[in-house]
Write a structure and sequence with these properties.
The complex is a heterodimer of chains A (111) and B (116). Chain A contains no helices and eleven strands. Chain A is an all-beta fold and 111 residues long. In chain A, the strands form two sheets. In chain A, strands 2, 4, 5, 6, 9, 10 and 11 form a seven-stranded mixed β-sheet that branches. Chain A has a four-stranded antiparallel β-sheet with strand order 1-3-8-7, with no helix packed on it. Chain B has strands at residues 3-6, 10-14, 19-21, 23-26, 32-38, 44-50, 56-58, 64-68, 73-78, 87-96, 102-106, 110-115. Classes of the chains: A mainly beta (111), B mainly beta (116). Chain A binds chain B through residues 4, 6, 30-31, 33, 35, 40-45, 48-51, 56, 58, 88, 90, 94-98, 100, 102-105, 107, and chain B through 4, 9, 32, 34, 36, 41-46, 49, 51, 90, 94, 97-104, 106-109.
């Protein structure tokens, strides 16, 4: 079955550590996205990528970094510069017209 | 710029009664609008989408929404609520970026509770 796989499902980070969230898709979608979800705020766009080796900042990119070395993969690194990283992170991909598919999310907690 | 307002953060209904979740949007362009549902600690599932075809859009699980341009609204309805409908619902507007990507702007969500 085609879809998006996010791992791990739960992740714990110590203060000052970088962590990387995995996102893999087998849908052959060109565009991929990372969203952050906080209670009562809906989802906010962190980064998106339209093709391999290209990505753009979203609305809340500070403290995050991404790479897109392969079409299927779009990992997100939460750096120590992100002051409030505890959140639910959702990866998505899309292909025209307007088809969006979401992963099942990674819950990151700073301990 | 575009934005989405969901007028109720929480809605409670009894099982078997109608559901109305309200959404208003603003967009500089003719919008594409969506409703997504999210169950606890899960990803998002598309309920329905409006993309400038029929203004009354039917989705999965008996949900439908009506696009009203004059009111800039896209309210979600269901004639009879089921216990399994309890979840968080997001109204979303899409805007095109360069290339094939489309950025989604999410409303803050409405938590639906279904009472037995």
């Amino acid at each position: 079955d085609g879809g998006i796989t996010q791992s791990p499902k739960y992740l714990f980070r110590k203060e000052g550590q970088n962590v990387t969230l995995s996102c893999e898709q087998n849908l052959n979608h060109d565009a991929m996205y990372w969203y952050r979800q906080d209670p009562g705020q809906g989802l906010r766009l962190i980064y998106y990528s339209q093709i391999v080796n290209d990505f753009q900042k979203g609305d809340i990119a500070e403290g995050y970094s991404v790479s897109r070395e392969k079409k299927e993969s779009f990992p997100l690194t939460v750096t120590s510069a992100q002051k409030n990283p505890t959140a639910f992170y959702l990866c998505a991909s899309s292909a025209p017209p307007y088809g969006y598919t979401f992963g099942s999310g990674t819950r990151l907690t700073v301990v | 710029a575009q934005s989405v307002t969901q007028l109720d953060s929480h809605v409670s209904v009894s099982e078997g009664t109608p559901v109305l979740l309200r959404c208003n949007y603003s967009s500089s362009y003719s919008p594409s609008l969506f409703w997504y549902v999210q169950h606890p600690n899960k990803g998002l599932q598309l309920l329905l989408k409006y993309t400038s075809a029929a203004t009354l859009v039917k989705g999965i699980n008996g949900f439908e929404a009506e696009f009203k341009k004059s009111e800039t609204s896209f309210h979600l309805t269901k004639p009879s609520a089921h216990m399994s409908d309890a979840a968080e619902y997001f109204c979303v507007v899409s805007r095109k970026t360069s290339g094939s990507a489309r950025q989604l702007t999410f409303g803050p969500g409405t938590q639906l509770t279904v009472l037995p």
